[in-house]
Design a protein that fits this description.
Helix content is 43%, strand content 18%. It has ten helices and nine strands. It has helices spanning 13-30, 53-58, 60-70, 79-91, 99-104, 120-129, 140-147, 167-182, 201-210, 244-255; strands spanning 37-40, 47-49, 95-97, 112-116, 134-136, 155-159, 187-195, 215-220, 230-238. InterPro entries: RlmJ (IPR007473), SAM-dependent_MTases_sf (IPR029063).
């Protein structure tokens, strides 16, 4: 079983970019009076405690969401800010939502949600907070292939792997290609790290070639600690909603201050 635990990194600068764009997309989709499906291939535990020992050990949240809120990176009417305010009202001021709980704030009764998480402990933690969803204790790409095209067909998928296994970089373009062919109307969003060893570059080049109309948004930031290989964060979005590019550019401009 893989060992990655997002509790050490929740609320960091990568999460901030990913979740700001995710919340914006969900808010846009939910604004229309049509049902939708939301899927995640690597859901995690759904809720994190930024006062916990894991978060305190790395300090990544202080450089991410804590700084962003202090410096008003997110206006009061931003979908992520609004979702965070509701979740902290429910779970306390140090709570930070993973993407499943962010999605929960935009999902309506008529919508359908599928969340996959293979890690036993993370899956059990997710089960405690995600009663609104169909939970799948299986490989996320296997879930996606089985569910797509979903009902309702309108909606989006977030693909957010841990990238612990280097072969994921090679496998992801093929997996996304299969999903996109089955679900050609779906918004398919992939998060990926920007790494000093450039391991991510062939993956993104392959995705750009296969999906030239996709939105690509990347931000750069200082490494979390000396020698740390991640120096940025990217989102690759097939069928991006109208206006997403403007929000992505706004977020990118914020990171240029760092």
């Amino acid at each position: 079983m893989l060992s990655y635990q997002h509790a050490y990194h929740a609320g960091n600068l990568a999460d901030l970019q990913k979740h700001a764009l995710l919340a914006w997309m969900l808010d846009y989709l939910a604004a229309k009076p049509k049902p939708l499906t939301y899927l995640e291939t690597h859901a995690g535990r759904g809720l994190y405690d930024l006062s916990g020992p894991e978060s305190e050990k790395t300090g990544e949240a202080r450089a991410g969401i804590t700084r962003a809120l202090a410096e008003d990176w997110l206006p009061a009417d931003h979908p992520l800010r609004q979702a965070l305010d509701v979740i902290r009202g429910r779970f306390g001021p140090n709570a930070y939502p993973g993407s499943p709980l962010i999605a929960r704030e935009f999902i309506r009764f008529e919508d359908n949600v599928h969340l996959a998480e293979l890690h036993p402990a993370e899956h059990e933690a997710l089960r405690q907070v995600a009663g609104f969803a169909h939970l799948h204790k299986q490989d996320g790409f296997a879930m996606a292939q089985a569910v797509c095209p979903p009902t309702p067909r309108r909606g989006m998928m977030l693909i957010d792997p841990s990238y612990e296994v280097k072969s994921e970089y090679d496998a992801i373009p093929r997996q996304i290609g299969l999903i996109a062919r089955k679900w050609n109307v779906g918004v398919i969003a992939l998060w990926y790290p920007l790494l000093t060893d450039l391991r991510h570059v062939p993956m993104i080049m392959a995705l750009r070639t296969a999906h030239p109309e996709a939105l690509v948004s990347e931000v750069r930031f200082p490494p979390a600690r000396p020698g740390h290989g991640m120096v940025g964060s990217g989102m690759f979005v097939i069928n991006p909603p109208y206006g997403l590019q403007d929000e992505a550019r706004r977020i990118e401009a914020l990171y240029k201050r760092l």
